[in-house]
Automatic annotation (TrEMBL):
<keyword id="KW-0687">Ribonucleoprotein</keyword>
<dbReference type="GO" id="GO:0005840">
    <property type="term" value="C:ribosome"/>
</dbReference>
<dbReference type="InterPro" id="IPR001787">
    <property type="entry name" value="Ribosomal_bL21"/>
</dbReference>
<comment type="similarity">
    <text>Belongs to the bacterial ribosomal protein bL21 family.</text>
</comment>
<comment type="subunit">
    <text>Part of the 50S ribosomal subunit. Contacts protein L20.</text>
</comment>
<dbReference type="InterPro" id="IPR036164">
    <property type="entry name" value="bL21-like_sf"/>
</dbReference>
<keyword id="KW-0694">RNA-binding</keyword>
<comment type="function">
    <text>This protein binds to 23S rRNA in the presence of protein L20.</text>
</comment>
<dbReference type="InterPro" id="IPR018258">
    <property type="entry name" value="Ribosomal_bL21_CS"/>
</dbReference>
<keyword id="KW-0699">rRNA-binding</keyword>
<dbReference type="Pfam" id="PF00829">
    <property type="entry name" value="Ribosomal_L21p"/>
</dbReference>
<protein>
    <recommendedName>
        <fullName>Large ribosomal subunit protein bL21</fullName>
    </recommendedName>
</protein>
<keyword id="KW-0689">Ribosomal protein</keyword>
<dbReference type="InterPro" id="IPR028909">
    <property type="entry name" value="bL21-like"/>
</dbReference>
Amino acid sequence: MSYAVIKTGGKQYRVQQGDVLRVELLNAEEGASVKFDQVLLVGSGETITVGAPTVDGASVSATVRKHGRADKVRIIKFRRRKHHKKQQGHRQHFTEVEITGINA
């Protein structure tokens, strides 16, 4: 089974065909096909191809399953004895994709 390491949204992911993962928000409709061109490594069995910095001609195709927002993260800044308390919440947007193929 072949696998690849791709870079999207400032993060790196190790993917195989059939994997479902959440990446940073992509500008694509649900059900649309997307292509990741920044492939850093491709492995198939015992052979591994490492890019410098990317593998030439390699790409990973995926299908957008859904868009959403992650669970709320609470940010609290508190100074004791100073009458200071600051609260903030954040929900990060994500895109859930399913890997359909690795072209190396």
